[in-house]
Structure formats: C-alpha cells, structure tokens
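This week, look over our next protein:
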Amino acid sequence: MARKMVGVENPAMNSILEVKQYYFSGLLARLKSYTSTKAAALQTEALNWQQKALAIEKFGAYIYNELGILYQLKKNMTAAESSFRKATELTPLWQIPWANLSILYAITGRLDEGIKAVDSAITRNPGSSINFVNKAFLFEKKKDLLSAEEFYQEALHINPEYFFPYERLGQLMISKGEFMRADSFFTASEYRRKGIMEDFSKHPVSAMFTPDAPIENLTRADCKLTGTDSLDHTVRLVTAIYAAESNPEKATAIFNDMLRENPNDLLAWHFLGEFYFNNNSLDAAESILLKAASLYPAFGSIDLYKDSLNTHAKTDGIRCYVKNFIKFQKFSAFDNKLMLARLYAKWNQPEKMEKAYRQCMELDPKSEIALTELCDQFSLSGRYREEEDLLKNLYRMNRSAGRSRLGRFYSEINEKYPGNEEWQFAYAGFLYNELITHPESYSLQFKIINNLGDVEAMENSLNRPLGEGELMIVSPRSNVIRLYSNWLANFGLDPGISSEVANRIGNIFLQMRQTDSAGYYFNLANSLSAGNAGVMYKLAGTQGAAFKFTIAYNSLESLFRKEQLSFDGQLVLAAYRMRKGNTAGCDSLLDHISNFSISPDQKINLLRAANAAAAGQYGKAIDLLKKIPGVNSDAYLLYQIARYSALNKQTEPALQYLAKVKSIHTWWKQVLEKDPAWDNLRTNPGYKKWLGDDD
C-alpha cells in the first residue's frame, strides 16, 4: 500500500519500502516457524525474503543480522558467523550482532571467542541484562561457576524481573551445596514465570530518645549556730562572705579585722580577693589573690586545713558548717589561680591569663574548667590551632564532654572556613575516629539513616537540644563521607593520603553494610596505592559480598602470592578456585592450610568433599562427608551424600540417604525436582515414592 502511494515518480523511497517489505516478510516467516510444524519450510522462505532485501540494500546491517539468525537455525554455522561479522563491520556501535555472535559461539563450543563477543556487546550497551545472561551462560559452560554467578547477579541487578537468571542461580547454589538459597532462587523464578510479584512493604522506623538524667543541684546545709559561737573565726569569715553581696562595707571591715589579727589568714585573703574581683576592683583583687597564692604552700592540702579549722571550732554546729563550707566554697590553690586567670581575661592581659590557666591545669590535670575557659579565650582571639590542641586534651580526659566540644569546634570552624583543606580533613578525622572506635554510640542513628534513607528529613525530625556529651551533628556517618569525598575531589593530591581517605570512606560504608559503595572506595584506595594488604582483603570481602567475584578472586590470589592472606582468607580462596574449575589448585591450597592447622577443620573437610565432587570423584567426596561428626543428623550433609551417590550411579544408597533428608528437613522437594543429580532416577519407583505426596 505504501509503495502504491509513493508511486514510480519517487524511486529512492520506493526502493526503501521494497527492502522493508522483504525484510519484514522474512522476519514474520521466521517468527511463525517457532510454533509451526513446517518450521524448515518457513525458515527457507524467510531466508529467500532476506536475500531479496540484501540484493537491493547491500549494506543493510540489520539484514545481515537476520540472515545470521536464519543460517544458525538451519545449522549453517559458517554462514551465520560470516553474516553476524558483516553486520558488526557495517554498524560498529550496534550491540545486537555481537550478542548473537556470542550465542553462536556458545552453541559451537568456542567459549573464549564467545566471551570476547559478548564483552563487545556489553561495551556497546552495558545496560542490557541479556548480554550479562549470555556471558554468565558462557562461563557456566566453561565450568567457571564463580564468574557465572557474578554475571547472573549482574543481570538481575539490571533487570530483577527476568526469571531465567534466578533459575540458573538456583542451579549454581545446588552445585555450591547452598540448598536453602537454591530453594529461594527457584521460588523467585516461579513467581516471575507466573507474573506474581512479591510485596516488599516498607515499615517505618520510630525512634524513642531517653533524655539524660538531670543532675541534682547541691544545696548548702542549714547548720544551726548558737550565740556562743559569735567570736569563732569560722563564723566571722562566713559572716563576711555572705555580707559581701548586701553589705560590702561590713564585709570589708570583718576581712580587715581578721587580717590585722592574723596577716597570714589564707581564707581571709582568698575571699577578700574574690570580693574585690566581683566588684571589678581588679588592681586590688590581683594583689590580694597573689598574696593568697603565696600562702597556699604553707598550708599543704586543703583537707589538712579543714582538719585544723575543725580542731579550733568551738561547737558541733561550727564543725558541721566547716564540713559543708569546704564542700561548697572554693578556696583551693586551683581556685585562686582560676580567679586570677579570669581577672587577667577581664583585664585583657593574654599572656598572664594563659599562664594562670595553664598553672590551673598543672594543679589539677583532671579538671576541665580551666581548659575549657582557656579554649573560649583562644576562640575569641582567633587562636584556633591552640584551641584545637586543648580540646583534644579534653577529649582524651573525658570522651563524653570532649567529643561534644571538639565536634562543635570543628563544625563551627568549617562553617567559618568552608574551603580550608586542613580543617575539613581534621573534622572528618575526628568523626571517623568516633565512628570506628565507638560505633555503638551511633547505632540508633545508623538504623534511622538506612530505613528512612532521606538524611535531611531525618536531621530535621531530630532537631532537638543536645544532651550531655552529644555531638552537634546528627548523622556523623554521612558527614564523614561528605567531608572525605569533598576532600578527595578538591585536595587529594598525595596518592598515599588519598588512598587512606578512600579506605576510611570504605570502612564507614562497610559499617553501614553498604558493600557496593564500600567496595568502590576500597578499589579506589587500592588503585591509588597498591600493595596494602588490609585494603586488598577488605576489597575482596566487599566485592565478594556484592557478587563481584572476579575482583575478589584476583585480590585474594595477589595476597596469597605475597604471603599476606589469613587462614580464613585462604579458605575463601580455595572455595573460589574450586568454583572457577581449578580443582587441583583448590586441593593444593587445602593441603597448604592443613600443614599449618593445629587440628582438622570441618570447613577444610567440607571443601575437600565439594572439590572432589567438582572433579567428578564422587566416591571420595562421599567418604570425606561420612567422616564428619554428626553427619546422620545434618540434613545438609545427608543430602550431599544422597546426590553424590546418585551422580555416582549408586541408586540404593542415594534413595536411602534421601529418605533421611526428607524426615528432617522441608526444603528438599523443590531442590530435588530441580537438581540434575536425579535426572537418571526420575522414573525409578523408589525416587517417585520419596517425591510423591504421601510424605
């Protein structure tokens, strides 16, 4: 119809339409052949149509691709390969003919060429799940089951609704002996075959915060003093202290009388200095506090001085007061120096102020007040590095208080200097140390981040006053990642430092159980500074968990060659070798492990049995499994013996062990139906009995 409408006066368009007519006629004939009893005739008809199309459009890559499919159906593999190759030459960026070539090579057993062809298809279209299915199938035919599993998983990552990868992964799990996972994959495959989608509903996470217990305010004891105590030294001093606020003249007179009677009265000097300090008579306060400071060494400890006061007290009431006075009033050498430091801060004498504060820290290294006040003074004067050093000391003395102050300091300094490389690095390092050394402190935040996903929304929902010792940040993990990632992007000039930064980001993602992201950064760390055994081992672990088995395997092999692989890592490597079809290499590594093992390890024996079965030595595998303690009550071991017996053509033992499995486990039936080990026994009456519904 279209050709009639165009007419003879437009020969170019008429020619194009004629080619399309032939091409689609051939395509329709091929599609009909799949369900027709006259498949061969329809395929011949399709071939004729495509040859007519090619006679007009000699450079039609899509026609060559269709010819390749038809020649393959007619078992003319040479012509099929030539047609697919011609299509790739005519349209180099088109992935379809490369994918079809890979299938052709899989059918003809040219597996390495097939892998090269499918890699060419993936390069041209990395978002095609079918290409990864084809690649996995090629590796499966090569007996490299480790790589096959990796690429089936990649296919599912791209398209989780295609049933075939689930089916093949179920088979691979059977070969690994992971029968529960096999059952799960088969179930997922059946759901997708039938169009049934599981409903994975998300459950909101609620968080309850328990406020810190309030700190009880201490109050002064109400000690009764009688009139006979009026001349007591302690009572006179207390009268002066309390009169200082309401009747300064009276307070001054009492202090002066006491000092005339005893020029070395430490308490009188101390509290008179405090009196002048509070009234901003800084000159007088300084000289008096310095006088008090000179007297402290003569009195020794404050406890001894308290004892002396109690000895001279006239009544129990005064002794009671002395006890509480000592408790609530500050008059140690430390407090005297602290008042001097505050005086110099008011007086704007930074050198004297710093010296006095540092003397306070020497007098009482455990006290935080002088340290934090000096930090505040450094902050006011812009001495941030010195403030940072002091806060680090506080953090070492008291993590709870120190992390709050240091975290707040870094947060504020980075807001003030957002482009400063050193402050960003220091802040990230502090947060990283917090998370790595005390992950339990952030477990609740971790759960919220991973369930809500939206970090900003989470931070808004938790917009509340900080409790004692809390950091000002709500999501330290995301802060670490953001700070370090920004540092890498803008300042990562030193490969060694950048490698360690990438390693740290990987550690945080690993803590969050995000193995894909962790693996990316461990890989980056390794590429920036190769040879770090710890990074390579974590890289192998995360890549293995993310089904990136090729990277994991190569990392483990590299570590083993360098003699830097732990025994657990060597066991993983042995399993990888077996799954890659290198059964001799697996045995060799297990021998190496056994030479250094103190006692026989069940993991080693299980691997030896699986490796023997992978090499077709089913009798050896059965003997090894039977030696494992508790075999007769272990469904996993019993089923392995049953299937190895079936593969070894030992029908009766196979059915006997299968009966034991059936009595102690529930997953056997679906796995049994799919397990190729039983293909030769499907019609056996004993097999039918165990598979039947009379269980």
Observations:
- Residues 593 and 675 are 32 Å apart (CA to CA).
- The two ends are 65 Å apart (CA to CA).
